[in-house]
Amino acid sequence: MKMEHLVSWMEKVEKEDSNHGEKLLLAAEQVFRDELRNAWQNGGLHTWQATLCCELREDGSKGGDLHYGCDGSDFISFDNKTFRWVTAQPQAVKVKEKWEDDRKWSQRNTIYLETCSEQLQSYLSYSKEVLQHRESPVGKVAHNNVSDKVEILICQAYGFYPKEIQAIWKRAEEDCKYETLHRNVAPNSDGTYYVWLSIEIDPKDRDVFSCHIKHDSLQEPLVLAWKENPDEKMQDLASRRLHVGVILAAVAVFILLASGIIWMKHQRKKSENS
User: Fold this and answer.
1) How far apart are CA 210 and CA 170, in angstroms?
2) What is d(CA 59, CA 267) in angstroms, rounded to the nearest whole number?
3) Quick check: 120 pLDDT over 60?
């Protein structure tokens, strides 16, 4: 029943943190257990999700949000302007009534939203070194032949930090905004991220396509294009030679078989005449 740190620098914060957020979550969990037993009389398995959000914007303004979900859907949220709870489904009405009747509970939520930005500021002072860390993306382009007229080019960028990145395929100088298929940015086990994007092209136009990647760690965009690997070229040449060899061998076998059949027919006719 304790918070678990997902980043190492949060251990430095633990000694100074009053754990107010932890108490808030545990209190909400207790209300959830008590009230939702009445809301769902049929029992069963249910999932409770809580989001406590603080915002500290560049212009100095602040914001916050308390939002709860149940079974993957919106359930109830706190309006920090009216200091009232807003329900998103009928089962949340009983919870709303319970929470609004408990003045201390509503007061704790209000205080949290007013002070959490200060708490966030203290977190940023500890995480400054981590947040300013930059790792440049490493990229490459792969391809996949679909048919003689369709080929897929795949641009891969990996090992970058922070997560924010811009990547797009270009035909010459023209952005292929709608033709580009993006895969969501995903985390690596070492804390960096990777992403890939693909595009369908005519193999004849392969040389005019390039992948452009922009990231905070780069002074200028990283431009990638398909380059044929010499090893792959040799393998492809060897494969073609093998393919031609198999065909020639098959033709030779066919000729031998045909010659054998003709010779046998000739011998049979010769024996019949004699």
Assistant:
1) 5
2) 102
3) yes
